[in-house]
Amino acid sequence: MTDLSIAAPLIDLVIGVTLVEALALLLVHYFSGKGVAPLDFLANMVSGLCLMLALRSSVRDAGVAWLALFLLAAGVAHGIDILMRWRRRTGSAAVDRRMVA
pTM for this structure? Predict the structure, then answer.
């Protein structure tokens, strides 16, 4: 059996880099108006972070409750992301069809 506890610092590093990336994207958009709009990436970013936290809690033997909580949060964030994309796509498709007709 492999000791997965040595992976925990690597997981922490990836979580940290992801948080820095999110902050950088937010700051670029806030100060310049350019880059990716927060609504276009935050739900996806939260979903990914929750999956990383679930992995971390599993590696650290934090308990099934924490694992389930992070997986549930990832699923909810993913569902929100899909719903937001679906609504944007439906709205833009409706506009496209009116312009063609």
Answer: 0.80
